[in-house]
Amino acid sequence: MVKAAINRGPSPEPPPGTRILVVGGGYVGMYTALRLQRELKAQLRDGRVGITVVAPDPYMTYQPFLPEAAAGSISPRHVVVPLRRVLDRCHIVIGEARSIDHAARTATVTTLATEEEEGTGPVEIAYDELVLAPGSISRTLPVPGLADYAIGFKTVEEAIGLRNHVIEQMDIASSTRDPAVRDAALTFVFVGGGYAGVEALAELEDMARYTARYYHNIKPEDLKWILVEASDRILPEVGEEMGQYAIRELRGRNIDVRLETRLDSCENRVAVLSDGARFPTRTVVWTAGVKPAPILAATDLPLTERGRLKCTAKLQVEGVEQAWAAGDAAAVPDVTSAEKDKECAPNAQHAVRQAKVLAENIAASVNGKPLREYAHKYVGSVASLGLHKGVAHVYGRKLKGYPAWFMHRAYHLSRVPTFNRKARVLAEWTLAGLFKREIVSLGSLEHPRAEFELAAGGGPAKPGPKPGPEPGSGPGPKGPGGKEN
User: Fold this and answer.
1) Considering the entire predicted model, what is its pTM?
2) Residue 198: CB atoms within 10 Å
3) pLDDT beyond 80 at 418
4) In 3-state terms, the chain is what percent helix, strand and coil (to 5)?
5) 18-138+291-366, what's its fold?
6) How far is CA 297 from CA 29, 185, 249, 291, in A?
7) 354, 327 in Cβ contact below 8 A?
8) What is the mean pLDDT of residues 44-49?
9) Quick one: three-class SS letters along 94-152?
10) Which CATH architecture has domain 146-288+380-434?
11) Three-class secondary structure of residue 189 per DSSP
C-alpha cells in the first residue's frame, strides 16, 4: 500500500495509512468528506485512513441562499459553513490545486503561503484515492466591457457586494443633480434567466422597492430592472408553464424581461443589447451559465467534449482506478432516464445526493466491499421570486405564489448542512417577519484600510459615497481564499 504524504510545507504531517485527497470544498467536496468521517470513523481514529481536503476557501457556500443574503433576509455568515468545524477529523489545506498527475498519484497545490516562501514553489500532495470535486466557475463570453464593469453572482462576497452596490446607487441617484447620472444609477441589468439571475434580480428588486420608501425623491417606479435572456424562456427547470408565470409575475412588477436577446457590449457604462436597445447603467450582473473548473484540464484524466470528467454510474472516473468525481465537474450517467447517454444535470439536488453515494462507495472500496450505482430521479425544482412569491414544479405538481415560496424555503432549510446553520437561518427568518428590513450599505467593507490610509497621509479622501465598481476594480480572478469552489 502506498502511503500518501505532503512532500513539502509546514503543514502537520498526515497520519499513516490510505490517504484520501478531496479537491474542492463545495457541495460535493464538503458533503463527501463529512460522510467519509462517519463511514470511516474507526479507520480515521487509529490512523489506517487519512482525509485531506484542498479548498480555496475555509468554508462551503450554500449558493441557493445567496439571493436572500443579498436581499438582507439572511446574514452572510449563515450562508457559509466553516470547513474546519464540520470536518474536524480531516486535514484542511486552504489553497488551489493547479495540476494533478494521477498516474503518479500527486496533486500540485498553491497555498496562501506559497508567495511568501521564496524559492520553494507549490506544495505536492500525494494520495491513494482521489475525489475531484472542484465545482464550476462563471462562463463568460467576449463581451466588450464585461471584465471591467460587470459583477458575477456565485460567491457570498459578490452577493453582499451587489447588495451594497444597489443601495449606494440609490444614494447616488438621491443626491445627484445630473438626470443622466440618476437614470444610470437606477438602471440594473441582469444577464441570464436561470436560477441565479432570476432569483437575484427578484430578491434585490424586492429589497430596493422597500428601500425606496426611505428616500424622499425616489419612487419604486423610478428604478429600472432589466432581465436579458438569450433563449425563449426563463427558469427552464420549473417547466414552460411555470416559466411563463414567472415572466408575468416579473413584468407585473415593472421588470423588463427580454427574451431571445443578448448583451453585445457594456463598455463605457452603457449596456447595448442585440435588439438594438441601449441602457446607460452602472450595474451589470452576469449570471449566464457556468463551466467546469480549470483544474480539470490540468489532469491526466478523461474528459467529455464539454470538459467534464467521464464517470461511471458508480461515480468512478471512467477507465481509471482510485479516482472519483461528482457534481458539476462530473458527467454522470442518469440510470433512471429512458434516454440513451443521458447525464445527470449539474445542479445542487444531484450534487448533494451524489456525495452520499460517493462517500459510501469510497468507504466500500477501502474496506473491500461492492460498490453501488447512483440512481436518483429528478423530482422537480423550486425558485423564489422575492418575499412570499415563487414558482415550483415538484413531483408533477405545479405551485406558484406563497405556497411555492414556502416550499422553496422549507426545501433549502432541510438541505443546508449542520443543525447550527438550520437553527440560525430559521431564527433570522422569524425575526425578519417581526421587524422591518435592514437597508444598510456597508460598501466600505470592500476597502477596509481606506480610512486608516487617509489618516496616515495616504492622500485626500474623495467626497461622498463610492460610485460602485470602477473600470478594472470589479470582481476578477482571485487567489486562494477568495475564489468560490
Assistant:
1) 0.85
2) 29
3) yes
4) 35, 20, 40
5) FAD/NAD(P)-binding domain (3.50.50)
6) 19, 40, 41, 12
7) yes
8) 91
9) EEEEEEEECCCCEEEEEECCCCCCCCCCCEEEECCEEEECCCEEECCCCCCCHHHHEEC
10) 3-Layer(bba) Sandwich (3.50)
11) strand
